[in-house]
Amino acid sequence: MSNKTDGLYVAATADVASPTRRRFLQGSAATAAISAMPFSLSLLSSGAMAQSTTKEILSGCHWGVFKGVVEDGRAVKFIPWEGDPHASHMLDGVRDSIYSQSRIRYPMVRRAWLEQGPGADPDGRGEGDFVRVSWEKAIELVAGEITRVRGEYGQQAIFGGSYGWKSPGRLHNCQTLLARMLNLTGSYTSSSGDYSTGAAQVILPYVSGSIEVYEQCTTYPVLAEHTDLMVFWGCDPRNNSHISWQVADHGAFPGVEMLKAAGVKTISIDPVRTKTADYLDSEWITPKPQTDVAMMMGIAHTLLSENLHDQEFLDRYVSGFEEFKPYLTGESDGQPKDADWAAEICGVEADTLRDLARRFASNRTMLALGYATQRQHHGEQSTWMLITLACMLGQIGLPGGGYGLSYHYSSGGAPTHESPILKSIDNGSGVKAAEGAAWLAGGGGVSIPVARFVETLLNPGKTMQHNGREIELPLIKMAYWAGGNPFAHHQDRNEMLKAWRELDTFIVHDFQWTATARHADIVLPSTTSYERNDIEQVGDYALSHIVAMKKLVEPQFEARNDFDIFAAIADKLGKGYEFTQGRSEMDWIRGFYEGAKIEARAKGMEMPVFDVFWDSNKPLAFPLKDENKYFVRHESFRNDPILSALGTATGKFEIYSRAIAGYGYDDCPPHPTWMEPIERLDGPTTRYPLGISSNHPRSRLHSQLCGTSLRGTYAVQNREPCWINPKDAEPRGIKDGDVVRVFNDRGQILAGAMVTNDVMPGVLMVSEGGWFDPINPREIGSLCRYGDVNNLTPGIATSKLAQGNCGQTGAGDVEKFTGDLPEVTVFSQPKSMSDSETSA
Ligand SMILES: Nc1nc2c(c(=O)[nH]1)N[C@H]1C(S)=C(S)[C@@H](COP(=O)(O)OP(=O)(O)OC[C@H]3O[C@@H](n4cnc5c(=O)[nH]c(N)nc54)[C@H](O)[C@@H]3O)O[C@H]1N2
Ligand SMILES: Nc1nc2c(c(=O)[nH]1)N[C@H]1C(S)=C(S)[C@@H](COP(=O)(O)OP(=O)(O)OC[C@H]3O[C@@H](n4cnc5c(=O)[nH]c(N)nc54)[C@H](O)[C@@H]3O)O[C@H]1N2
Ligand SMILES: [Mo]
Questions:
Q1: Where is the Molybdopterin oxidoreductase N-terminal domain (predicted)?
Q2: Residues 286, 386: one domain?
Q3: Which of 163, 220, 327, 480 is catalytic?
Q4: Which residues have a Cβ under 8 Å from the Cβ of 664 and sit 6 or more positions away?
Q5: Do 181 and 243 have their domain in common?
Q6: Is 291 a member of any domain?
Q7: How far apart are CA 279 and CA 547, in angstroms?
Q8: Is the CB–ligand 1 distance for residue 809 below 6 Å?
């Protein structure tokens, strides 16, 4: 496959990006080389297309660039773009999401709320007793309620954090649009951080001077050439890089293929047999979940005691190793963190740990860490300890050595192209600042750590520690969500249900009847990306193309664009023009493109005029420079630690942080420390016998697509699969395909047993994102019929430092379910829908 045929190209105007046509083509060839997997599809010839009303329309989504085949106004198939090196099998489900049974059709209001007013019968949320209303009425209700809540409780009483994986696109970014509407009309409580890297992104600035988790890693071509040993530590690119935050490029797939072709030795340290390990036939080591810090320390202790550590590197590039050393050796607390100690905790044999230390030190070793080990109680420590280990190995900044924190995510490690950044719609805060921020006097502008929303609802006025500061938790009476699914993503569902009763009003925009929409008071049907026009970049790191996300079909039922919904609300609140600036959808998109065109010109590239780009029906390709193809993370720091100092206080890697020491947090000491999580497999105070992992699903993006036909490809008796090792299944009389009940003190779910050796003994794996389907929504603790694992996870914070979520913490037990099997109802229209088809 040649990239020449599958993209429109920018032309070079100067020497900067592509000095000669030859160099330019070399750049393209380089792209083709990393996307070496041919993906040939015979597209309908244009002649065939002319005979029917079939059209192939270019678009993009989290799952990649594709063409929507549209016949007589209906999207009949999504075919992957020919330039995609590894098209996602999820595209079929993406198409189905337009038409699935779970589509929200009309604006709906919960009956009790409509008839008795805000705050009425909060326990009844989730019962599905909705009344259909007209759009006019819905907008009036929302605008009126925003005004009421602000007037009675203050600006901060509206929570507009609205976290989640809204669809890509620079215009129809429903979270930004929500913030824009709220900012232009007043203020609100927002949120900071995310559920992905809540702990790591807060501690890393202290350790390596930037958030790093979303920054480029040493690229795959470098790894293929220089790395002897690649360690995937809870890190699964071949699952997790199916998607990107923007439009997926899938560059990790050819990247991992390059490792295989080059014969790089790989190890997977993971309680689950990953897709990547399977593909590479990696050596598989299975620590007990949540014990990686101890395991890393056992390896570090071996390095030190066998004098395998790189003292020169530590002296030159690292601060605080001397403060950490007495803890590692046990001099400070009487407990050497040696391999024997670590083996007791993590369950991996001490000899294996010693062997790993020796192999890490004697090879060019890349430590690739995923995010799961930091989405755990005390999750700050695993990232910190991994970097400590890499510092001791002294290979950071060398080609193919050191560590990488994003190899699994959005194809980190796939080289970054020479591309401008598309402009996007903004959240209106600038306009607010220009107006003199009069609302500030009203007490708006509060921000809480994103995963502490439930704690906030339950404890208004409480003081919370966060990253060296104190936050007074605001009183919240309304939550407004667009583009996220808190009833999937947040932990401890039953605590959450209780907290939700504190709200007067919960407003949700979505296109699917998720559990979140079902628990709302006002539900507004939004369009999918495939019912509107937008524009986006391809690859979060690769930035290889700009793609038109074209409208394929008309909005289904009464769905409206979030943009138009928020514009109507802003208009009701007197800020309609400020919201739209009088510009149409295509005006905005053209503007974003023109902004990028100017930036491209400054970089020596000439993008085609907008209409040529848009009408070409092809993604616009950007060149790849050699220096980006062979990028080595922290190379410049290694070469010149003074001029290219890290952003930490000392300019070096910090294994001891004076700033963190100053905070005095009991749950986040000033150097990496092994701390028992509240519960884990074989934890000293854990009541339940099995650990629970909740990995990111293989055939979904979180909860997205659970309501589509894709579910049929993996569900077990229409329940979410629960992976269980035969050693745990047999004594419990559980057979493959049985419905099981998974439970602990926090909650209980049904799931479908998948008996497999791909999960280690002692661990259950139920992927996050299964739709919450309580038998009795009024009853807290009610059995979830489908299998939402967040009924079982704890709602606690990682620590006072980051206040991140602990989705990958948990323990419980499982039994064969022998009762009458309840029908799963969460994927169909809410129960009152049939009698609500006529508008109230
Ligand atoms: N136990 C456990 N829990 C976890 C995790 C874990 O590992 N374990 N992982 C965590 C992580 S990393 C994350 S990122 C979160 C993910 O949590 P979320 O991002 O909240 O999950 P999604 O299912 O992607 O929800 C996105 C929602 O936005 C809707 N949507 C998409 N496009 C649009 C649009 O244009 N307009 C509107 N109005 N709606 C739209 C979708 O239909 C969907 O309902 O989950 C977290 N929760
Ligand atoms: N297909 C698909 N891809 C996705 C997503 C999706 O929903 N579906 N979500 C995207 C998002 S928002 C994010 S943030 C990333 C998430 O990326 P990650 O957080 O890295 O993904 P996880 O699936 O939670 O875990 C990755 C691996 O860590 C392992 N693991 C779990 N606990 C432990 C542990 O205690 N120790 C060790 N050593 N390993 C452990 C798991 O078994 C799994 O193989 O993925 C992104 N990619
Ligand atoms: Mo995430």
A1: 59-99
A2: yes
A3: 163
A4: none
A5: no
A6: yes
A7: 30
A8: no
pTM over cut 0.90: yes
Instruction: Examine the residue annotation and report whether 165 is marked as an active-site residue of this protein.
Output: yes
Query: Is residue 234 in some structural domain?
Result: yes
Q: Tell how far the Cα of 393 is from the centroid of ligand 2, in angstroms.
A: 26
97 lines ligand 1 (CB under 6 A): no
Residues 777 and 125 sit within 8 Å (Cβ to Cβ): yes
Beta bridge partners of 158: 478
Same domain? For 335 and 467 the reply is: no
- The response to whether 732 counts as a known ligand-binding position is no
Ligand 1 atom, smallest distance to 524 CA: 38
Task: Tell me whether residue 327 is one of the annotated catalytic residues.
Answer: no
Q: Which atom of ligand 2 is nearest to the CA of 704?
A: 7
The predicted-structure confidence for 746-784, as pLDDT tens digits, reads as follows 999 999 999 999 999 999 999 999 999 999 999 999 999
Residue environment code for 249-278, b if the CB has 16+ CB neighbours within 10 A, otherwise e: bbbbbbbbbbbeeeebbbbbbbbbbbbbbe
Atom of ligand 1 nearest to the CA of 526: 38
- Closest of 92, 83, 95, 241 to residue 619, by C-alpha: 83
pLDDT of residue 178: 98
Ligand 2 centroid, distance to 41 Cα (angstroms) = 31
Q: What's the CATH code of the domain at 322?
A: 3.40.228.10
Q: E strands within 251-369?
A: 265-269, 283-285, 318-319, 365-369
Instruction: Assess whether 407 and 346 both reside in one domain.
Output: yes
Task: Consult the annotation and say whether 532 binds a ligand.
Answer: yes
Q: Which domain holds residue 722?
A: 690-816
What digits encode the pLDDT tens for the residues 338-394?
999 999 999 999 999 999 999 999 999 999 999 999 999 999 999 999 999 999 999
